[in-house]
Amino acid sequence: MESERWRIEPGSPFDLGTLDPGDLGGAPGDKKATNKATKELRDRLAELQGRLYAEGGEALLVVLQALDAGGKDGTIKHVFKGVNPQGCKVTSFKQPNSTELSHDFLWRIHQNTPHRGMIGIFNRSHYEDVLVVRVHNFVPEDVWRRRYELIRNFENELTAEGTRIVKFYLHISKAEQADRFRRRLERPDKRWKFSRGDLEERKYWDDYRAAFNEAIAETTTAAAPWYVIPGDDKWFRNWCVLTTLVETLEGMDPQYPEPEDDLPSPEDIV
């Protein structure tokens, strides 16, 4: 399958520094050709999502992680265009509030996992609790390090109960992040997304990369694989994510339920 190109296999050596965020390998052609293929994939995704919703037997959880300006919002906007909103829910995980902090770190996550028949999309996720807390020393190392096993167990539990999990790291270069910050400042319709805090976090670029390297290596499993998507070119990123989602749903093979045996004929309805 095409998505195997970006899949991180369990137990394999992993380093983001060896992966090119500008890689266009596997694209069906240039930008125009790839956008055409992306439109076709969107249509296919909408069809499969309709089947998933109607069948109501399994769920799909999509996890999106990236550095600031990595493209999480844009991916949601462009990949899920045309999907029935009734069968799709986006949850954005911000800094936890006092109630959430009074529970274990997975408490707020579990409450937002998708129901059967649904596609759930996490814009950031439980992985913040082995990323930002590590980089900024919010908790001791022995606390965040044991969370890897807790995350694996949590995702295995979800999978065993009928939720397929696909995790994406949107991989951008430091130069591309800087360009996106500049464009946000230049455009009035994007300026609201910029925060001075983004520049402070940018100073921790290497620390975040190290944290992502270990988190991905520790938690990519057969049941819940990580896919590292080259993200410098948005049009290619969208095609990669759609390709992976369509292949995943085709593997799940949702079907419309069989109709009742005693349905009336259309002519009987007057």
What distance lies between the first and last C-alpha atoms, to the nearest angstrom?
49 Å
Low-confidence stretches: none
Strands in their spatial order, largest beta sheet:
1-6-5-2-4-3
Count of DSSP-assigned helices: 10
Record field, number of beta strands: 6
What's the SSE pattern?
EHEHEHHEHHEHHHEH
Report the average pLDDT across residues. 96
User: What is the helix fraction of residues, given as a range?
Assistant: 40-55%
Label the overall shape.
Answer: globular
The major sheet is characterized as: 6 strands, mixed
Estimated share of beta-strand residues: 5-15%
Using only CA atoms, what is the Rg?
Answer: 20 Å
- Classify the secondary structure makeup into a structural class: alpha/beta
Keywords:
single chain; 270 residues; six-stranded mixed sheet; 10 helices; 6 strands; 12% strand; globular
Report on this model:
- There is one protein chain.
- The protein has 270 residues and is an alpha/beta fold.
- It contains ten helices and six strands, in the order βαβαβααβααβαααβα.
- The protein has helices at 31-55, 72-79, 98-101, 107-110, 132-135, 141-160, 174-186, 196-202, 205-219, 234-252; strands spanning 7-8, 59-65, 88-92, 119-123, 163-171, 226-230.
- The protein has a six-stranded mixed sheet, sandwiched between helices.
- The longest helix is centred in the first third of the chain and has 25 residues, at 31-55.
- It is globular.
Quick gist of this model?
This protein has 270 residues and is an alpha/beta fold. The chain has ten helices and six strands.
